Amino acid sequence: MTPPLSRELQLLLRALSEPLDTDSATWERLLRLARMTALHGRLAAANRDNPTVPAPVRRHLLSAERVCAFNNQMLRAELAALAALCDGSFPVLVLKGGAYALQNQRVGHGRFVSDVDLLVPREHLRTMEQGLRAAGWVPAQLDPYDERYYRDWSHETPPMRFPGRFLEVDLHHAITPVTGSLHFDPAPLFDASVPLADSPFRTLSAEDQVLHACVHCFQDGDLALRVREVVDIDGLVRAAATQHGFWTRLVGRAGQLGLQRPLWYGLHFAHAWMETPLPQSALTALPAPSALARRLMDRLVPLVMLPPDPDHPPPASVRVARLAMLARYHLQRMPPSMLLPHLARKATVRLRERFTHTPAQNAENQP
Amino acid sequence: MTPSAYRLIDLGAARVAVNSPLNDFNAHLDLVYQHHGDGDPLSFADVRVSLLPSRGMRFWKGRVSLWSEATCPFEPYPMRSALPLFEWGSNWLLAQRLNAYLLLHAGVVARDDRALILPAAPGSGKSTLTCALHLAGWRFMSDEFGVLDPDSGNLLPLLKPAALKNRSIAIIGAHPQARLGPVFPGTRKGDVAHFVPLRDSIVERHRHARPRLVIFPRYRDGGTLKCTPLDAANTAMRLGLNSFNYRTLGAVGFDAVVRLARTTRAFELEYGDLSTAIAHIDTLFAEHA
C-alpha cells in the first residue's frame, strides 16, 4: 500500500466531501493546500452549509465559491456558443469538466475548468476546426515546430480561443497521443457515447469517463499537484458504481482498449487516498504492474501529486520526483528516437528564452 | 521556517503574514508598518508569503523571490526591491482571494463613519490625492483597494502603505507630517516610495464607514478645476470598470455597484492643483454627505 498520508492531507481529502469541524489555524493550512491543488472550489462546495466554519475562513470559501460560479458560467457560455456549430452530421463529444457540468454530476460541483475539451472523429477534425475558425475562434500562435508537433504527434489540435473570452477550446480526435504506447483507435468511444440532455453534444459512457480520467491522470503531461484528478476518479467511480454491472463493464472495457494499467493506478490511488469503495475482484481482475514499478509509483506519485508543505519551496525529493515522472510521461508519449531530438530542441528554446527574457514580465498587469 | 517566524500584519479587512531572512527587507517592513503592531503569527492569515533570496541559476543571484504556497508566482526582483515585490505580490494575492467583497480600484478616506471613494485608472493621481486628503485631516481607509461588503453596503479599511510614484514622492514627502519609506529608483513604474498612513487611521483599521460621496479624480498638469456631476447609471458603470473583481462577482457585483451609485453622490473632478482640489472636495462633502 502507499505510504500513509499526513494528517493534514487526510483532513483535506475528507473535507472535500463532508463538512469539517476544526480550528482556524488548521483551516488556513487546508485552504492553502487546496489552493495549491485547485481543490478550493470543492472544499467550498462541501462546506457551504457547515455552521462550524470560522468567519475568516467562511469569507475564503465564499470567495472560492464565487470564482467557481464565474468559471462555471464562462464554461456554459462557451458550450452554448459551441453548440451552435454542431449540425448533427458527426458526433461531437464533450469531455471532462464540460461533461460533468452538463450532466450536473456531483464531481463537477466546485470543480474549476481551464479549457473545454471536445472529441470528434478524426475524419471530421478539419471540418470542426474550420467551423470554429469561421465562427471566430482563433488558434494559438505556435512556431512551425510546435504546430507540427500538435498536428502529427498529438491527439489534439493547437488550443483555440475566442477573443475576449476566458476558456480555451481543445479539439481532440483521440484521448491518447497517436505516438504513445497507449494509443488505440477511438472508434469504440463514439459507439458507446451517450447524448447529453438539452444539448447537441454527446459524452463518453460512464466507464469510458473513468478510463479517460485515469489516462489523463497518469499518462498526460505534468503530474505536479494532480491530486485533483484522483479526486475526479473517485467522484466518477462513486457515481457510476451504483449502476448494475458497472465493475464488470469497466474492467472489460479497460481490457478492450488496452487501458488496464492507467485504470489500475487510478483505482489504486483513489482507494488509498479517498477510500473509494471498490470490490477486490476489480483490482485483481486487472494485471498488476511489476513489483518494482509499483514500488516506484508508490514512492513517486505521492511526492509529485500531493502538495508539499505550503510554507516551503518544494524540497529536493519533490523536484527529483517531478523530473522522474516527467521523463516517464515523455517515454510513454513517444519512442526514444523521437523523444531525444524533441527534448533537445525544447531545452535549446528554453535556454535561449532564459537569456533574452526580461525579468518581472508578469508584473505588467500591476494596477 | 516555523509558523511563529512569520510576522502577522493586521491590515483591517485582511491579514497578511510575511517571513523573510533579509535584514534590509525586515527593516523596511518595520518602517512602513511601524504602527501596525505585531499580530499573533499563528492566527489566521488571508495571505502568507515568504521573501527569499533566489536560488539556482547564477542568473538569479542577487535577486529575491516571493513564495506563496510553495510556488513562486512572479519573476524575481532585484534584492534591494524586496519591499515593492512584497507590496505588489501581496496586493495581487489579496485581489485573487477577497471575493467575499467587491474590490474597487480606489482610494478611500473618511470623516468619522462617512466615506469618500476615489476610484481611478492608474496614472490618474489617485494615490497622491488620497494621501493629500489624509494629511489634510481625513481618515485613511485604503489606497489600492476600496473594500466594499456587498451584504452591509459598508466600506472596510485596508491599511497598506500607499505606493507613491515619481513626482508624487516629493510632493507628498514635503508635507511635515508625511512619513515615507525608502525610494526604490527605476522600478517598472519608475521611482516608488511607500507612504505610511498616520497612526490614528491605523488604530481605527476595523472601523467601517458608510459610502457617501464618489469622486473620479483626474489630474491634468496645469489644468483648472472642473467638477461634473454624474448620474447613477454612469456612476454604476464607472464603478464596475474601476473594480478588480466586478465580473467575477456576477450579480453580486452588479447589485453592489447599483446600490452604491444610488446611495451616494458622484462627480468627476479634473484638477491641476492639489490644494484647490482638496478645498473643493471638502465643500462637496459638506454639501452632499
Automatic annotation (TrEMBL), chain A:
InterPro entries listed in its UniProt record: NTP_transf_5
Pfam family, one: NTP_transf_5
Protein name per Swiss-Prot or TrEMBL: Nucleotidyltransferase
UniProt organism field: Thauera humireducens
Lineage of producing organism: Bacteria, Pseudomonadati, Pseudomonadota, Betaproteobacteria, Rhodocyclales
